[in-house]
């Protein structure tokens, strides 16, 4: 069995597509059952959040497993597999382990270092355990991923990475507002992880009154209540804009929220002597329409503008340290995986030896019927002991060698030398770690995936 990750995230898919793919808690068990019903999928864990939908699977073949998972995801989205192709990414074998560990450590999150994903992975593992869809391989993968995530937060300051982005942006904003945000009316657009950091940081700096708006009104209300802020419906965005000096925009929208029309209308209702309206665009893709920066009386600070400031800052250093932790943990897991892969070959070798011993003892019994039971038992113990001693050092050594890069060659050599029949993965498993478009974006050629043969 090999590891395969197929998914879509805020990096590759618009919100509408993620919403189509999202699996509600009430449907998780049914979807896991659908995955296990596919012929190439032996184990499955399903992660479904507002920013990502991913399937972690143990599969018997790359192309077959990919086709099976795409079929289930397409069924969930109510769309043909080809319609999802440009939004999905694929990671196989070692790259799959690396991806899962990076997700657990917060390196793949919209807000780098946020710890919420660790709880979401734990929930996904819990659901898979309850549905009996996680076998030995995924149990080990998920347990190690959760441990890697905890280690990243315990040994580094990665938690502060997202805060560094917000803090740097607000420092730039303060330069346009007489160097001080205290007492400045402010608004946060978006109630996700980055939006929450925005509200918390503005509150700490003494900005206020604070206003929160979000497409989902309930989340805006909960966030506002936590900091004594005021929540307003998104329909009142223009009116709210006209009353504030600083805006932190951090939504997951695929189209600009602070459009040229909305900001123009807000400026029309704003006192002329209030100073600039500073817009911090912390969203990817952008929340502020490009033309807004050309309006008089508006200052736009976006991720591109902050990139140089953050590239060598604490956030980058912490992320680099976590990346080093992840790299080491990936290699450790792959060593375990290589050792686990050789186990069936070692078992087959010992089984072959037992078969030979049994056949020879049977032949001895036929040729020497004069031996009594005690004598035959002593001969059997002696022969078994000799065989076990002969096999002990080679099998211990092959396990050690198998844990090293390229160690699968030793198991293959044993199978060849002793003509061992051990179930092997299909040759189609030899594929690139990541399947990508020519422009670097993830891509799946669904047309070339063979039929799964299972229920659709």
Question: Brief description of this entry?
Answer:
53% of the residues lie in helices and 11% in strands.
Explain the overall architecture.
With 456 residues, the chain is of the alpha/beta class. Helix content is 53%, strand content 11%. It has a six-stranded parallel beta sheet. The protein is elongated. 41% of the residues are buried. Mean pLDDT is 84; it is low at 425-456.
Helix and strand composition category: alpha/beta
Q: Please tally the helical runs, counting DSSP H or I stretches of 4 or more residues.
A: 16
Strand order of the largest sheet: 7-6-5-8-9-10
Helix residue percentage? 40-55%
N- to C-terminal distance: 23 Å
Strand content: 5-15%
- Unreliable runs: 425-456
Compute the number of strand runs.
Answer: 10
Order of helices and strands: EHHEEHHEHHHHEHEHEHEHEEHHHH
Coarse shape: elongated
- Mean pLDDT reading: 84
Q: How many whole angstroms does the radius of gyration measure?
A: 29 Å
Task: Please describe the biggest sheet, giving its number of strands, its sense, and whether it closes into a barrel.
Answer: 6 strands, parallel
């Amino acid at each position: 069995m090999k590891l395969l990750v197929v998914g879509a995230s805020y990096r590759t898919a618009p919100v509408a597509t993620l919403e189509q793919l999202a699996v509600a808690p009430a449907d998780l068990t049914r979807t896991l059952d659908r995955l296990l019903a596919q012929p190439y999928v032996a184990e499955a864990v399903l992660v479904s959040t507002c920013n990502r939908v991913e399937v972690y699977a143990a599969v018997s073949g790359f192309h077959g497993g990919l086709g099976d998972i795409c079929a289930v995801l397409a069924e969930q989205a109510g769309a043909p597999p080809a319609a999802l192709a440009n939004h999905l990414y694929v990671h196989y074998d070692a790259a799959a382990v690396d991806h899962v560990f990076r997700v657990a450590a917060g390196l793949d999150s919209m807000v780098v270092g946020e710890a919420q994903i660790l709880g979401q992975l734990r929930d996904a593992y819990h659901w898979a355990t309850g549905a009996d869809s996680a076998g030995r391989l995924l149990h080990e993968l998920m347990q190690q991923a959760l441990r890697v995530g905890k280690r990243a937060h315990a040994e580094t300051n990665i938690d502060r990475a997202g805060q560094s982005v917000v803090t740097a942006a607000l420092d730039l904003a303060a330069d346009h507002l007489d160097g001080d945000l205290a007492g400045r009316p402010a608004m946060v657009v978006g109630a996700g992880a980055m939006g929450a950091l925005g509200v918390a940081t503005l509150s700490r700096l003494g900005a206020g009154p604070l206003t929160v708006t979000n497409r989902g009104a309930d989340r805006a209300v909960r966030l506002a209540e936590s900091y004594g802020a005021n929540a307003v419906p998104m329909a009142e965005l223009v009116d709210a804009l006209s009353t504030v000096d600083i805006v932190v925009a951090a939504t997951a929208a695929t189209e600009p929220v602070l459009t040229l029309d909305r900001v123009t209308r807000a400026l029309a209702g704003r006192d002329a002597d209030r100073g600039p309206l500073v817009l911090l665009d912390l969203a990817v893709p952008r929340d502020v329409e490009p033309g807004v920066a050309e309006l008089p009386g508006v200052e736009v600070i976006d991720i591109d503008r902050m990139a140089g400031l953050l590239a060598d800052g604490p956030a980058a250093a912490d992320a680099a340290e976590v990346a080093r932790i992840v790299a080491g943990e990936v290699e450790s897991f792959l060593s375990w995986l290589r050792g686990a892969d050789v186990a069936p070959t070692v078992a087959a070798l010992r089984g072959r030896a037992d078969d030979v011993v049994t056949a020879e003892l049977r032949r001895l019994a036929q040729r020497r019927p004069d031996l009594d039971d005690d004598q035959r038992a002593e001969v059997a113990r002696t022969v078994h002991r000799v065989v076990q001693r002969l096999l002990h050092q080679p099998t211990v050594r092959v396990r050690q060698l198998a844990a090293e890069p390229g160690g699968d060659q030793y198991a293959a050599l044993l199978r060849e030398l002793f003509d061992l029949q051990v179930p092997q993965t299909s040759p189609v498993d030899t594929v690139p770690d990541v399947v990508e478009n020519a422009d670097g974006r993830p891509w799946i050629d669904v047309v070339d995936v063979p039929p799964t043969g299972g229920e659709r």
